Amino acid sequence: MAKSARLSGFPERLPAERVIERSIIDVLEHTFALHGYSALNHRAVEPISQLAKDGEIDKEIFAVSRLHSEGTERNPLGLHFDLTVPLARFIADNANELSFPFKAARIQPVWRGERPQQGRYREFIQADIDVVAEAELPGHFEVEIPLAVADAFSRLAPLGVPGVKIVVNDRRLLEGFARGIGLTNIQAVLRCLDKYDKIGPAEVGKLLAAEAEADEEQQRLCLALAAIESDSPDFADDVRALGVEHPLLDEGLDSLTTMLRAAHERAPGVVVAQLKIARGLDYYTGAVYETQLIGHEELGSVASGGRYDSLVTVGKKSYPGVGMSIGVSRLMAFILDADSGIKATRGTPSAVVVAVTDEDKRGEADAVATALRARDIACEVSPSAAKFGKQIRYAERRGIPFVWFTEGESGHEIKDIRSGEQAPANPQTWEPVAADRKPLVYRD
Amino acid sequence: MAKSARLSGFPERLPAERVIERSIIDVLEHTFALHGYSALNHRAVEPISQLAKDGEIDKEIFAVSRLHSEGTERNPLGLHFDLTVPLARFIADNANELSFPFKAARIQPVWRGERPQQGRYREFIQADIDVVAEAELPGHFEVEIPLAVADAFSRLAPLGVPGVKIVVNDRRLLEGFARGIGLTNIQAVLRCLDKYDKIGPAEVGKLLAAEAEADEEQQRLCLALAAIESDSPDFADDVRALGVEHPLLDEGLDSLTTMLRAAHERAPGVVVAQLKIARGLDYYTGAVYETQLIGHEELGSVASGGRYDSLVTVGKKSYPGVGMSIGVSRLMAFILDADSGIKATRGTPSAVVVAVTDEDKRGEADAVATALRARDIACEVSPSAAKFGKQIRYAERRGIPFVWFTEGESGHEIKDIRSGEQAPANPQTWEPVAADRKPLVYRD
């Protein structure tokens, strides 16, 4: 017998909340399709050997094993912690069946064994788009990905989701800069910079000394770089003014400048170069992205990603890619906060309750429901024969706007329970207005 | 770095296959909404204490644990193996927030550690609808559930899915009959009957003797009952003719007769009483359902379920329910078999490739794509500047019907690559026909 068993970090939505979550997912799916991304759905598990890397992430893996298996499994499995690693493996599995560049969209749960906290869960939904090419990935895809995400957020605006600022950087720029000033432990430099917003520049300086052996001048230069932020391609001048030289720095600067120029034209103000952005995950090799909800920066990034050149290799072929992941569950944390004002008109799909006044006449009510459904109008038949008042309260409790009576004064009648208006109606022709047809999401 | 890692029993779909799977899911979601079922999405995990019952099912559970947790977890978790147990727990968690009778729909993966075989997976998608009431569940919901499922299958017919026969029985009828002839190990009787189709009546007779201590006359009566099959409510006469009496038998017979009468009226021929149906799961207490694809009975049941009166209890309140689960992955096994003839027109959402003939003019192509997307036409911009022929082959390989040229003889032109026809086009007004707008599923 089932008992109540809430689990911290595993959010579940009530019906009206799920209407909102699903509306967000629908907008994202639709936007991804408009941009030509093929929808995929990855299996939940991967061999742990695919998931556990040298990076920090292996702490967070949920292992999966058959409860009654005897001894150790030959091929131990874990739940995927993102949608990039499964895509890379999917491409390795199916390279011969796919056409490249391959554009993939996935919206599904991922799992991490982290300590749950506000906006961070153990099971959460991500919405990812990626472009993966064979051998060469043209730089314009590094522009396309954040602009597709920006388009998705602009299509979420009618639901009440605030605008976004997508902040970008380039791993090559950071690595080239670090090497150019004589630092060699690049992973340590990236890890330190990644903490800039959390601990501030002074602490990052100390950390650079401790972890990357940076002297005072090297710290000063790193912090000067990290402070650069601009939505104009001219940010490159500020970098050049620091007087550091390295071929990788040039490569990263060129790429980021091109991105900003294109973004400036196609979505002015949305994409901003922010040179302190490093991203924790170790597989990025070019552009990196984070996304802030304007006015709600404290939420952290709601869409992140980057370019990865060496995640997929099949035989001698490499498949470089670039992608971003929208944190649907983190967005939901913001939306479900009462302050957001975002609500659903109702949690049930039904627009109509067909009343049953006598259990022997349930068949008549069923026939009305069948006729309405044939014309795409969601409805339900009253669960029990009852007086009019009880039928109306049943609808009211669920936010269903209409009650249908098969035996009104003039035969079939429909009542709008909000206005109290009741009028004759024909199950073959009656139509609700669009706003009543389906549950809608709106901002109060 | 990702390596190829196919896992037996964890199917993943290629893009065109996913178009088909998603079309099926869309039809089911839409049908469930039309019938007033609120969409929910359960977390993937439950405490193992909720999942592991006395029944056989506990062998099949996948346990989940943090890879780097120290010692044993206080609250060990497992992946859910169906969508009924999570719903029961969800209701126990949220009874005060829900209105009853509560109608829930869920379409999501479940996991079982079974040995994979044709149509049976370790991760598979189920589509469930359930009605759960407070204290009393009116019998008409036992009719509503299979009729909603029948409606779903009739809406899948245009995609090429064959018609179905929903076979029904009632646990009370079986239990009452068994008790009426003096058998007391009811679980054993149900288990034996459940093997009727696999091993045949003679072997079921032997099994009844061995496991339920049935003598020859008891075996004869059980097998006579199991042989009864009819789409008419008159099947009850055949049961009565066996001369067995028990109050529970009467209750089950009444309920099943009512169901067949209503089904006979609303969906003639679809619902058939088949008294050998028992279902393996131990939580059913009333109606039980299985569903056969007509002409493909060897696939086994593609939609099963039943009534459960004691799955949810909160304090002193009980919440009886009834539901069915459509096996989406099992349906997909049938559909992806070449013999089904079911195909998708393409695996990419794009209806148009906007050609780029010169990398410097990519901005013009981007502008066309933006204009088309603003009018809900999915498209992509060519990944690299190339000659016309190469752009057309790019579209061809993906099944994309149209290529847009920004510099045709008369300016903007669109080419239907199937007919070769090319005509002037305006990005603000050009429309594809409906059949080309999105990937479609059809039967060859």
From TrEMBL, chains A, B:
It catalyses: tRNA(His) + L-histidine + ATP = L-histidyl-tRNA(His) + AMP + diphosphate + H(+). Belongs to the class-II aminoacyl-tRNA synthetase family. This is Histidine--tRNA ligase. NCBIfam families: hisS (TIGR00442). Pfam families: HGTP_anticodon (PF03129), tRNA-synt_His (PF13393). One of its GO terms (biological process) is histidyl-tRNA aminoacylation. Its EC number is 6.1.1.21. It comes from Brevibacterium aurantiacum. PANTHER family: HISTIDINE--TRNA LIGASE, HISTIDYL-TRNA SYNTHETASE. L-histidine binds at residues 82-84, 112, 126, 130, 279, 283-284. Homodimer. InterPro entries: aa-tRNA-synth_II, aa-tRNA-synth_II/BPL/LPL, Anticodon-bd, Anticodon-bd_dom_sf, His-tRNA-ligase, HisRS-like_core, HisRS/HisZ. GO terms for molecular function: ATP binding; histidine-tRNA ligase activity. The keyword Endoplasmic reticulum does not apply. Residues 20-349 form the Aminoacyl-transfer RNA synthetases class-II family profile domain. Keywords: Aminoacyl-tRNA synthetase, ATP-binding, Cytoplasm, Ligase, Nucleotide-binding, Protein biosynthesis. Residues 434-444 have a biased composition (Basic and acidic residues). Residues 418-444 are annotated as: Disordered. GO terms for cellular component: cytoplasm. PROSITE patterns: AA_TRNA_LIGASE_II (PS50862).
